[in-house]
Amino acid sequence: MPLKCTEIQVDTLIWRYMDLASFLYLLQKSQLAFRRVDTFEDHFEGHLPRALELRVKDQESHHKQQETQLTLQQMRLNTHVVCWNISDQECYAMWKIYGREENSVCINTTVGRLQKALQKAEADLELVKIHYIDMTSRNIASEVQVQNVNFKDVSFQYENEVRLLTSRKDAQTPDSSEDQEPPVFEAFDVNLDALIQNIYVNPNAGDHLPEIIADLCQHYHGDIQLQDRIQPSRFLWQPEF
Known about the structure:
Number of domains: 1
Low-confidence stretches: none
Structural class: alpha+beta
Shape: globular
Radius of gyration: 20 Å
Mean pLDDT: 90
Largest sheet: 10 strands, mixed
Order of helices and strands: EEHEHHEHEHEEEEEHEHE
Helix content: 25-40%
Number of strands: 12
């Protein structure tokens, strides 16, 4: 199914930083793993900002408040996402936060390549740009489309995030008595030749890891020569003066 994307240009460069296990999964399965929204560390994730929460409490009946709360809970349970960083360059801060282990890897691509890579994915997928607001403020400048999970607290603004998301079609309704939780991860087929533009290895990993990554790329996808897309980290350059 075509990847929906309305706010981001097709030539926008995006980056995904991941640990070695996640990269190995990508190579072995040729699948992108989407994580369930309610399992993220950010405790604001998928909740109403304070201004809208106060509006709900002020304007809606108790029954309607409960209904809104259940609807948001179901949205968090049934929405899975993959997060990407918009940047023209490799970002050291992102290595420190999302490549915390020295054995970590980053891939970059463009929005257009991502769309092509997911052409055969059998799911409704959407790429949304994250908007950053003060979740704790009593006032927000504009309405927030909470159903798209397309906003985060301003404290995460450094991520400059775009988010690939999908929502389960078999999601339970707020009135449902079913209490079985959806899986933490959903995975969808992706064309790695189209997806991966370049591969970068954590600059703090040492000399061994680039060789290991090259061997893994050769082993799993030597036919498309992913190993030739490994680039030296810009942070390995040693100035002489």
